[in-house]
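Record format v2
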Amino acid sequence: DVKVTQSSRYLVKRTGEKVFLECVQDMDHENMFWYRQDPGLGLRLIYFSYDVKMKEKGDIPEGYSVSREKKERFSLILESASTNQTSMYLCASSRLAVRTNTQYFGPGTRLTVL
Amino acid sequence: AQTVTQSQPEMSVQEAETVTLSCTYDTSESDYYLFWYKQPPSRQMILVIRQEAYKQQNATENRFSVNFQKAAKSFSLKISDSQLGDAAMYFCAYRSYNNNDMRFGAGTRLTVKP
C-alpha cells in the first residue's frame, strides 16, 4: 500500500510564527504536492515538486514556501503564519509518468493560527 | 484554466438505495482524466474511480460507476446499494493529459441514513 504520512494531525500556532509541515511518502514517487482544503472551495494547489530540489508554484503560493531535499520528503513552510492560513493542509504524491499518476493523499494537518 | 463544478454541497441517501453525485467541468482540451475521490470524516482521501477521456466506456468499480458525457462535460458518480461506510465528502477532479496539475470541485457531502 502507498503510504503518505504527515507530521501532525492537528497544529496550533500563533500569528507570526514560522511553521513547518512535513510530508513523507514511501513509494518512491517523483511527484509531491501540497494542497489547502477549505469548505466550499475544495482543494487548491499551493506548490508541487517533480524532483528533489525542484518546485513549481500552484494556484495559491503566496505566503508559503516549500523544500524538497530528499525524494521521499516534501515540506511546506509558512514563513510568518497569519490567521487566514488557518486551514486543512493535504499532502499528496504520485508517479512522474502522467498516464498512470494517480495522486495518493496523506491524512491531512489541520492548522489553526491564533 | 480548467474549472470543476459540483453543484450539490450536500446529498443524502437511504441505506441500500442508489444516489448520483453531479460534476461538470470546463475545458478546451480533448484529452484528460477525471477522478472521484472520497474523504471519510477524519480519514484519508482515497481514489474511488477514474476515467480517461479518450475511453467511451464508463468506468466501474464494484458499486461505484460513472456516467461520462464528454460533449456535455459532465461526469457524475453513481453509488449503488449505499452503505453506511459510503458517508463522506466526495470530490470530483480533473487532470490534463500531459501535466500533473489537478483541479478539484468544492465537494459534495454525502450522508447515508440507516
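Chain B has a mean pLDDT of 94.
Chain B has no helices and twelve strands.
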